[in-house]
Predict the structure.
Amino acid sequence: MFRALSRIDADLVPQPDLAQDWQITEAGRTWTFRIRENLQDHQGQLITPGRIAACLENYRTGKPISPLRGTFPHWIGTSAAASTVTLKLSRPDPYLARNVSLLRYFTTGNPDQPCEEPGPRSPVIASGLYRAASWDLAPQGRFLLLPTALAGGRRAVEFSFVLDDNSKALKLIRGEVDAVQNAISLTKTRWISDAYADRFSRLEREGVSVSYLAFNLRHPILGQKDVRHAIALAIDRERIIRHKHIGFTSLAGSLLSPLLPESRQVSFAYDPAKAEALLDRAGFPRDKSGVRLSFHFKSTPVRDGIETALLFQEMLRKIGVKLVIDVVEPAVFFASIRKGNFQLYASRWLGVADGSILYNTLHTGQPQNRIGYSNPRMDQLLEAAAGEPRLERRLPLLVQVQDLMGEELPYLPLWYWGNVLIYRKELGGLEARELSLSGALEPLTRLR
């Protein structure tokens, strides 16, 4: 629905979009984007370099502050010329071409002030291949996208929002929907594609979304490295992947998938005997009831999360660690995580495309560093990597970052999620390699 200076393709490579190309000068501190001619939004208003620059400045300095502002810590200004838009940085940013794809162009009715915060009744005028038939989802829970002239003959796409897993599966089987991507449980995914193989095709591709276990390092016991390592050694991730995820996930050794050039995989092998030895060494023997330690694990009522928590609970019980599962509503869960009100939790980073995730989650004081991790050596490595535009020089720094993360274990990477699309056999025109590594939905528009 929306366009930006760049877009991300299925392989997570930045491609031109509103810009037709870009140049990097001043050792990576100046990015000049050459803007395509005769661009228009869905109301026929021209999308000019001046309006794009105004849009970007609203993301950078507008009120209320955009949640995307923190993605560009070194962005200090934007200017426009006859055919270009220039972004000035205080220091190089190797991920800028990818991250500007987040800054989508739109207006709320005033084309001279694009990308303003929409009011509750403001129109949102987009700029992409599709436009919304209506912004009102009630009461049907459906969202219809109509193709624009840019869509090149693609058909309308309607999204259905269904909470219950059984209802999702039944809607597909009954023919009420044509396709489901990453939206039903793994057991139902396998069951439908096996039991209804005559009706449905299944496409699979590896992915970069990663689940992880987070430790609150402010906690006096979880702040001890031996305790975190003992917990990691007691969780049999391979068994969970094999029997619970039935092959739809793969073992993680970093927050970065091995599909990404900056990844460094670190081994966390299952070894409960070594876990017990670490807890003995740390001074946490079993009491009369066999319990060494007790921690609270925060979860939402989502079935997958509850089942994973129960598996962790059983595995940790074997080394004398009692895990109390606290189930809270999603809004409470995320508010608690942001405030640091947790001991342990598991979650998932979606569509991790590059090493910036390491800076955002490990650098001291970053908003997404919710675990309270701080290490001057880590900060030094992260800052050096974040300012190095050349991959061949950045990679050794990020290798050290991921090795240090594996040693200190503020997070335990759990598994990477693959992408699965099930669709009616009558539809076609899409191959597995066209599915996005991030799980993005755009490839679905190419089904025929």
